[in-house]
Amino acid sequence: MKLHFRNRFASRDGPRMKWITSRLALSLWLTLAFMVVEFAAGLAANSLALITDAAHNLTDVMALGLSWYAVRLTQLPSNSDKTYGYHRAGILAALVNSTALTVVAISVVYWAYRRFLAPPEIRADILIGVGLVALVVNLFTALWVRRGSESDLNVRSAFVHLMGDVASTSGAVVAGIIIYLTGANWLDPLVSVLIGLLILYNAWGIVRETVEILLESAPRDVDMQAMVADMLKIDGVLGVHDLHAWSLTKNMRTMSAHILTNDIPISAGARIQEELSALLGQRYQIAHATLQLECASCETEGAYCGINGEEQRLGLN
User: Which residue, 103, 179, 237, 253, is the most exposed by fewest CB within 10 angstroms?
Assistant: First the structure.
């Protein structure tokens, strides 16, 4: 039997996340409906740019669906099996979405290259008309889910999907106008290549950030040396070792450390822990710090030690 409980990692932003899920759901259905229309128009116009955008919309549908499910999952309470809750579900969704974006971008570049070799005739009128409608739909859905994308990698990955569509449809419209005026059909695959490279650039940034979080790297904007220096300024703190800082999600951080002090009563130790927690929360946005107090006579192993002995025992060093 699972025990469900609330802890410091439980979400305190339920209403806002429900608002985000409703917007993700609406964006999903709008994107799905337009994807079918755009794919049919791309076949009729013989336009790789429109077909590419429709394919990208298909990945958007999957991305929005995955993001919607992950947001709902992160709202579940912690339990005896998932003591941190389900916050990492959003990180996994962001990784899947950004990886799918990378695959789509590479595929777009490949098919555009093939079209460069033999540019087909393009129905510029259909390309322009459908592209304009697509631009309106994609811009609306992107702005619709924008809120929350700055602090949530999962929502950000969905937002990047949608903004990639805005860029691709804008490029398709511009290419359609030039093709209509000049007959330069090679612009269609050229736009597809530029779109693919743009998607690849944005996807790689999300992949890198999600992998860093899954590897439990220290948050990028946290200067560990400066943080230790600040901790040592707290009255009663004589040293810091066995320090570990990592992120559960983009903006949900935690850490653990051993704090060296004099041989003091528990009440004095509690005061030190409170001051350290306040410092770490206010200056470094660390939501929860596990601080173990030790006497100064304890043997230290270095600021970032903790598993070196185990590595040596296993013959990894």
Answer: 103
DSSP string, 34-84: HHHHHHHHHHHHT-HHHHHHHHHHHHHHHHHHHHHHHHHHHTSPEESS-TT
Phi, psi of 245 (to 5 degrees): -130, 135
How many whole angstroms from its chain centre is CA 244? 22
| Residue 153, amino acid | L
- What is the pTM for the complete model shown? 0.64
Residue-wise pLDDT for 15-61, tens only, equals 556 667 777 777 778 878 877 887 887 787 777 666 766 776 777 77
| Domain covering 4-214, topology | Alpha-lytic protease prodomain-like (1.20.1510)
Tokens of 61: 């549908």
Pick the CATH number of 224-313 from 3.30.70.1350, 3.40.50.2300, 3.60.140.10, 3.40.50.1820: 3.30.70.1350
What is residue 164's three-state secondary structure?
helix
Q: How far apart are CA 12 and CA 286, in angstroms?
A: 15
Q: Give the span between the Cα atoms of 273 and 279, in whole angstroms.
A: 10
The C-alpha atoms of residue 297 and residue 191 are separated, in whole angstroms, by 67
